[in-house]
Design a protein that fits this description.
The protein is α+β, with helices and mostly antiparallel strands. It has one domain. Strands 1, 2, 3, 4, 5, 6, 7, 8 and 9 form a nine-stranded antiparallel sheet that branches. Strand 2 and strand 3 form a beta hairpin. It starts with a strand and ends with a helix.
Length: about 170
């Protein structure tokens, strides 16, 4: 799910993350979505990004990643669940997003941080992002002229991001 309006761009991906033909995807309720397509509108911009494994509810404590890991039968997991089975990946970064050597990174106050998509492959999870608000652009939008569907999507995306617990 994503929405782009003057001064704001947000996306929310939830499902099983996997690689196929050189692309990193998320299979969720909306089908298979390419992660890169969600990131491109934020490239070179200040953004808030959230990435985490999402176990089923209720959490399955006897399963790798609380049930979020699909690598358990193979005996080895790229997120390290074969070493620490209870690990739940949680990443929250704020900074300028850009691509470097085919990897997405965020320039933060602490330095450049790589988004660990390799640790998401074969896991159910959530990846959400939102541009840092350009209040001047947001305030200049005539929301009364927007389609109801755009308002509903913006509301849903912002609600999901707001209620996202890390």
């Amino acid at each position: 799910m994503q929405i782009s309006l003057p001064g704001i761009y947000c996306f929310f991906l939830e499902g099983l993350f996997f690689s196929e033909n050189g692309s990193f995807l998320c299979q969720g309720d909306e089908g298979s979505l390419t992660v890169c397509d969600s990131l491109l509108p934020l490239s070179g911009k200040e953004a808030d990004l959230f990435l985490c494994h999402k176990p089923p509810s209720p959490v399955q404590p006897d399963r790798w990643g609380g049930g979020s890991c699909y690598w358990e039968l193979s005996g080895k997991c790229p997120a390290g669940h074969h070493n620490i089975s209870s690990l739940i990946l949680r990443v929250k970064e704020k900074g300028v997003l850009f691509e470097k050597n085919k990897q997405w990174v965020v320039r933060t106050e602490r330095g450049v941080v790589e988004l660990p998509f390799g640790m998401m492959e074969g896991h159910t999870g959530i990846f959400a992002g939102c541009s840092s608000l350009d209040l001047e652009s947001v305030q200049s939008v005539d929301y009364s002229s927007m389609e109801v569907s755009q308002v509903e999507i913006l509301s849903k995306v912002l609600d999901k991001i707001k209620n996202f617990k890390m």
